[in-house]
DNA sequence: ATGAAAGCGCTAACAT
DNA sequence: ATGTTAGCGCTTTCAT
């Protein structure tokens, strides 16, 4: 009880103790731990043995204090829990990030920022100096978070083109415009002439760009582009939008939805209304997620290389961290169209 | 360039500078920052002003070094990315955890441990002294991670009863047995007499207990309990299991699946085989997730209070952190049956 | 190749 | 109520 350690990390051996055990100085142990080459084989072994014997693990706080690095990067997702854990998009991204970061000694840590309160916490966490950099994803409109982090001198990379392009922050995005264009054009080519779209949120570039792609395709084909209903990428919004569209025009024969979830919702509503997919109405989604594979009929969908996007994000961030003055340009990755049975 | 700061956190004002600016000592500033009451109103104001003026933010590394606390707790999910971001179960849990932790000054950080490599990283991270405690979820079989963390003197709480109950670690779980029993009994009461089950992984208590519940219900009703096929909670495994079951016995008229995802897979296979749900075969799932609400017909499912489970996990962990010697007992929360159209 | 020593920025115990 | 001081455990010059 009165022993020298009531504190949590008590008893943990220190550099000092390892040094004593190995009969060398602190500095030498430090060199061994950090893989310096300027250590003789003999001492190297002695120190290693001592480390092993004592079960020494470097104290990060002490190390951070002097190096100013934390070897941790933060993934901030600006969505509510339900969204984050419902959208398969994030899975690929996280995997991609993890893969790439595994090559470095950076550890990935994830935090949600779906509410103001959470955003504030994330900001404080980052400003406290607990991370070397941050990847932000799913930013809406004029989220102040990226700006605040940059102001706090924290390297930041974004997922998805920021709406206000003045930001100048490096970002990675899928070619949403081309993807949407290809999807819409596909509907046209299989014979649809009354093609509607269900958009994503218009405060995100992904939402805006996919709508633009739809428009571009139809303008090129000289089709009408008026059948637009807005959604928020979520399933329920897709159902709502589809109902609205059907009410406005019941001759619709093709639908391009800006997310698989919305497309799935639309398919359900179409069925409720007695429309067969794809015979009466063809449907294309966006994301090529699990959802698309599991609708009935299986859904044709635009694929984005989420995993590669994660890879690129990691690379960009590492670059920013290692060369704070570099401003790597944006990375735009190509999308594809995966043909299944719904269109 | 030769200025005193090329390092990342360079130029950040320190306690010392704030003290100078406010004309007081370091100690006093520290007291203000940490909310000590023993400070006169005057100096309090002076210090606050100085902090404001200089934009001072305490350096966490320095603070951690002396306090031995990080104010961070880790949520470790022992699943692959695809799983984590596909199962809505996690959303509720994370939300519950966040809610409760928001009352404290603990920050939640999430890490995946789906591969050995990731598990190793997580272990190192925790042993490095970067977290005050950890919540582990989705443990399989004899995962060594919890033991290692405990050995490293890190407070740990588990989600789901550990299979080897000798561990003695505090945990939170849903009453899986009762839930499964209620689901199965419901099938019996609506007239099913050939009731099959699709189990979860048998290296997790949730899988084992739900199967036990199925058995208990049928034994009580004197029904046969032989129609068992194994799955892993995932959709594909549900499809596989359903096919297998139909091959073995095509008079099956009720199915209890240990997860919504598997139940959804089963429903699809049933439809493929020309069985109508619930008319020919009634189906009950487990989780009461979004998936259950979106099948056609909507799925009857066992609900677990995931959010409350998250709350309780946080409470347990906080207790463990604040009183390292306390060993709070397990918390088992009740499940319910949500009636929809599939049974 | 190695040791010695000067901090990194903060908290907390002790004085006053 | 406030100042003083001794570290927390580590990295990193600077000598040798």
UniProtKB/TrEMBL annotation, chains A, B:
Domain of life assignment: Bacteria
Presence of the UniProt keyword Transcription regulation in the record: yes
Domain HTH cro/C1-type residues, every copy: 14-57
Entries under Gene3D superfamilies matching the protein: 3.40.50.2300, lambda repressor-like DNA-binding domains
CDD domains registered for this protein in UniProt: HTH_LacI, PBP1_LacI_sugar_binding-like
Keyword terms, alphabetized: DNA-binding, Transcription, Transcription regulation
InterPro entries: Cro/C1-type_HTH, HTH_LacI, LacI/GalR-like_sensor, Lambda_DNA-bd_dom_sf, Peripla_BP_I
Residues annotated as domain HTH lacI-type: 13-67
MF annotations from Gene Ontology: DNA-binding transcription factor activity; transcription cis-regulatory region binding
Keyword match DNA-binding: yes
Name by which UniProt lists this protein: LacI family transcriptional regulator
Species of origin: Actinopolyspora mortivallis
């Amino acid at each position: 009880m009165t022993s020298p350690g009531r504190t949590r990390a008590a008893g943990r051996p220190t550099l000092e103790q390892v040094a004593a055990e190995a009969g060398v100085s602190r500095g030498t142990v430090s060199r061994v731990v950090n893989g310096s080459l300027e250590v003789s084989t003999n001492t190297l072994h002695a120190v290693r043995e001592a480390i092993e014997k004592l079960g020494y693990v470097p104290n990060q706080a002490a190390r951070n204090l002097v190096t100013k690095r934390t070897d941790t990067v933060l993934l901030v997702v600006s969505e509510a829990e339900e969204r984050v854990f419902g959208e398969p998009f994030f899975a690929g991204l996280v995997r991609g990030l993890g893969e790439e970061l595994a090559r470095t000694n950076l550890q990935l840590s994830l935090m949600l920022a779906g509410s103001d309160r959470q955003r504030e916490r994330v900001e404080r966490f980052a400003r406290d100096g607990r991370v070397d950099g941050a990847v932000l994803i799913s930013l809406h409109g004029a989220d102040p978070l990226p700006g605040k982090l940059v102001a706090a001198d924290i390297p930041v990379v974004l997922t998805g083109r920021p709406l206000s392009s003045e930001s100048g922050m490096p970002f990675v995005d899928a070619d949403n415009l081309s993807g949407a264009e290809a999807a819409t054009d596909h509907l046209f080519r299989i014979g649809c002439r009354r093609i509607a779209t269900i958009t994503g949120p218009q405060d995100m570039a992904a939402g805006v760009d996919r709508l633009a792609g739809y428009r571009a395709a139809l303008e090129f084909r000289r089709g009408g582009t008026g059948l637009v209903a807005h959604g928020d990428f979520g399933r329920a919004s897709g159902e709502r939008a589809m109902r609205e569209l059907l009410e406005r025009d019941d001759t619709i024969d093709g639908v391009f939805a800006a997310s698989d979830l919305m497309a799935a919702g639309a398919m359900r509503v179409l069925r409720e209304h007695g429309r067969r997919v794809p015979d009466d109405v063809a449907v294309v989604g966006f994301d090529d997620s699990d959802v698309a594979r599991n609708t009935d009929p299986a859904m044709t969908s635009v694929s984005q290389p989420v995993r590669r996007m994660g890879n690129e994000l990691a690379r960009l961030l590492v670059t920013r961290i290692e060369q704070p003055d570099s401003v790597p340009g944006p990375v735009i990755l190509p999308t594809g169209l995966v043909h299944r049975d719904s269109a």
